[in-house]
Specification:
single chain; 35% helix
Length: 110
Amino acid sequence: MKTLIAICGFALLLCIPGCAGMSPEDNQRLSTEINNTVSVGMPLTTAKEHLAKAGFSCDERSYAPSISCTRMRDNILYSCIQRANLIVDAERKLVVAVKPEGNSCIGGFG
């Protein structure tokens, strides 16, 4: 009986946080991390290298002025995609703006 109570208690603790990664604090932490990793005026190649070291992959297939970079964060209970958009100059050599897009998560309880 004590084992069953312990298992139920542990399961309840896993359910309490809800869908992690969706809170304003989580989005602010992501925004801060991205802004500390990439800055306006940085060469695009350097920005992509810094984001790659942080686990992001960037999609440059489009010739739009925006380059989308994403990173997956997985847990046993949920999965999140973290996004950042790099706005580049006309020659696609310099970053002119950095726009963290926040977390999009699925799973969890709540």
